[in-house]
Amino acid sequence: MDVEAMYPDNFQDFDTWSSNIDHNMEYVAYKAVEFIEENANNDFFLYVNPTAPHSPDVLTAMSKDCRITVDGDFRSTMSTGWSVEGMTKEFGDDCMLYRANVRERAQSTSTHDLGSIWVDDAVGAIYKALERTSQLDDTVILFQLDHGKAGKDEIWEGGIRIPQFIHYPNGFGTASRTWDGMVSTIDVGPTFLDYAGISESNPHMYPMDGRSWKNAIDNILGSGDDWKANRCLFFESSEERSVRCGCDKYFQLSSSSPEKAEAAANGWPGWNTNTAEALVDLCDTSGNYVVADLSVTSPEAVNIIASEPQKAFELSGLLQCHLDKTKADVAPTYFECGGNTATPPPTPATLPPTPAPSLRGTTINPTNPPEEDTTPPIVHFFNTEAGTYLTTNTPVFHVWASDDSSIRSVKFQLRDPSGNIRNQVNGDLAEVSIDHEKWASPQMTLDESGEWAWRARVTDNSAARNQFLMPWVHFHFLGGDSPVAAAVGIIRAEIEELINGNNALRPKFLRLGFHDCVGGCDGCVNMDNGDNAGLDVPIDALVPIVEKYAHNAHITAAIGSTISRADIWALATLAGVDLAAGGAPSDVTWSMTHIGRVDCSGADAAGKGGPDPELPSPNLNTHELLDFFEQNFGFSSDETVAIMGAHSIGAAQRQNSGFDGPHGWVNNPNQLSNGYYDMIIGGSVDPTNFWDLIHAPQWTQETIENSNLDAPSRIQWFHQKTPDS
Questions:
Q1: What is the helix (H) or strand (E) element at residue 259, kind and residue range?
Q2: Cβ atoms of 304 and 275 closer than 8 Å
Q3: Is pTM, for the whole model, over 0.70?
Q4: How is 409-462 classified by DSSP, letter by letter?
């Protein structure tokens, strides 16, 4: 094998080479043409790697003498330059005259523009040499880029998807054709060997990762549907990994991933800086690959993993299979990790004392495994079932596996609350009996309160080393000094996420908390009472959180107390107030001081129904209002004034209360402040100055007629604004 006209910039430790050695496409083309002419009567393989338009700067390279090469300095033996038809020959073999022509055609000094023309001319020179030596029609020419135009060192489609052109008149004819099967650079080796008459079925063929597409093109020269739908390709850059099967592409991303940082900065749906896994659909509704450009948004802009967990699970297993079989410390294997048609097992449960139904993991088998039993081992999750709440930060996970053949290894893996996937660790065989093996992980450290997940990967002891991936098992870790506080913090975080997605829930949760606590905070609101109209909105918003956490036996077992629906409603009230009080002093917070409120009887699971306590009428005068709060809550007059000030948040709706809140209410209905009383006394008026107060804007009483609504008519005060108020 000859290596000539090598470009040194991407190699290390070439400090002794002349700084005048740079891009030199004339010399690269000259040596390629020389090789073609010397082998005009021989079969040959020629690999030409143009260095432009890669860095360093092409304009600078064009100013250097083309006679200075990696093979030596030829200035003393050559009066001009390298004679290359299609490049320098038309300029008397003078490189500088030819390069001036390149700059003139480019009308630019950019590396990309100059380099593209320079490379195009070099490829043209090689084409002419094949034509001149009567080898063109019988030569397979493959031209491709090293990375996509949208970027390098990232696993976006714009970086890993590249153009590839093939020219072979005796094989394909001379008409332009397109074949859109999904191929990879790893296919180039087996394909060229196939064209040379050395097929993959040859017993002496060295195993390779890629596949030959020769027969696919010969037989189809068309759609390539099978190669698009039934093939999976794997990609990696730095610590980022992805697998694409047909239209589906799955990502596993590190904490420092540039991909997720870019996606989060763009505000793409489903992406954020904590994204550890992503799933995207690269095709349109007709199943055609979407090519993104300036007018078409990339399909990778939408992370659909939340709506397609099963598909993400299947692809994560395929990706892990690929990572395992390509490790540097394992013997090479060349099977493909299968398609994307696997079915994940059902959600696992704790192994009971008596035999339980079996769980079978997603099987990751070779395309052509040996003829032996490759039935997945029966695997039961032995401890830390789904939904468990742990208070220890160093748990040990167990898997119980049963099969006719023994298990070779079990690996355990964690995913933290931020979505980062921790490194897999090898388990130990903890117990063996006639019908089962029990495997245990080492202590695995939990360092953050919140929802975690664990899973296991089982490798059997067959020659094929079949692997079986279990689904993620979700559990919570209650860290810190108080498991109760940690549990409340987890629930509160979900409530705050709910509120941040809809600011209108701030006042609605506050109103729900007050109406619930009249007569006792019991997690019930009687919706037959007209004064409770509209409370179905906050109640329904909290249903998923109530279903998940209220009277959760796992939480009770972990913290020794039960969190009720009434506790969750109270927590929502406090969270809503906390988020609404943007202008409050930093030391003023609304924290949960206790749990253990008792839910009423007679309501449905959401909390609608039950007792119907008397609510304070909106028609009470001042003395009646003070008496109500003193009798029902033991409030002083100051405390009653304070809670009435909560009317600064929210806006009454006529269809609910009969009051026309948006007209005459405070200016910012989503902020808890002094706005209610500011409006009463005239905004910025000094409340200690009697003469200012008596000249404050006047209020008038009007009747709100609601006969056309299912709400009572009301008498309401309206603020008459003066011209300067």
A1: helix 258-265
A2: no
A3: no
A4: EEEEEEE-TT-PBPPPEE-EEEEE-SS-EEEE-------SSEEEEEEEEEEESS
Contact 451, 475 (CB under 8 A): yes
Widest pairwise Cα distance in the chain: 113
| pLDDT at residue 718 greater than cutoff 80 | no
Q: Which of 437, 442, 455 is nearest to 386 (CA)?
A: 455
Could you count the other beta carbons within 10 Å of the beta carbon of residue 335? 17
Q: Where are the alpha helices (DSSP H) in 140-247?
A: 157-160, 169-172, 188-195, 214-219, 225-229
* Nearest-angstrom CA–CA distance, 381 and 360: 11
Alpha-carbon torsion (615, 617, 618, 624), positive or negative: negative
Q: Which two tokens stand for residue 89?
A: 């020959």
Write the Ramachandran bin of 446: left for phi over 0, alpha for psi from -120 to 50, otherwise beta.
beta
Which strand (E) or helix (H) includes residue 234? Answer: strand 232-237
- Listing DSSP states for 306-372 in one string gives TT-HHHHHHHHHHHHHHHHHT-TTS---------S---PPPPP-PPPSS----B-PEEE--SS--SS
427: left (phi over 0), alpha (psi -120 to 50) or beta: beta
- Residue 667 confidence (pLDDT) above 70: no
Query: β-pairing, 72-73 with 68-69?
Result: antiparallel
- What DSSP string runs through 3-36? --S---TTSS--TTS-TT----HHHHHHHHHHHH
Give the pairing of strands 378-381 and 714-719.
unpaired
Q: E strand or H helix at 232, and its extent? A: strand 232-237
Peptide bond preceding 56 in cis form (omega within 30 of 0): yes
Q: Are 615 and 515 in contact (CB under 8 A)?
A: yes
What confidence tens digit (pLDDT) does each residue in 382-439 have?
678 888 899 889 999 988 877 656 788 888 989 988 888 877 788 888 888 777 788 8
Q: Is the dihedral of CA 255, 259, 265, 267 positive or negative?
A: negative
Tokens 């600011």, residue located: 503
Interstrand relation of 473-477 and 389-390 (parallel, antiparallel or unpaired): parallel
DSSP string covering 488-544, please? HHHHHHHHHHHHHT-TTHHHHHHHHHHHHHTT---S-B-TTSGGGTTTHHHHHHHHH
| C-alpha distance across the termini of the chain, in Å | 90
> Is residue 53 reached through a cis peptide bond, with omega within 30 degrees of 0 on the bond before it?
yes
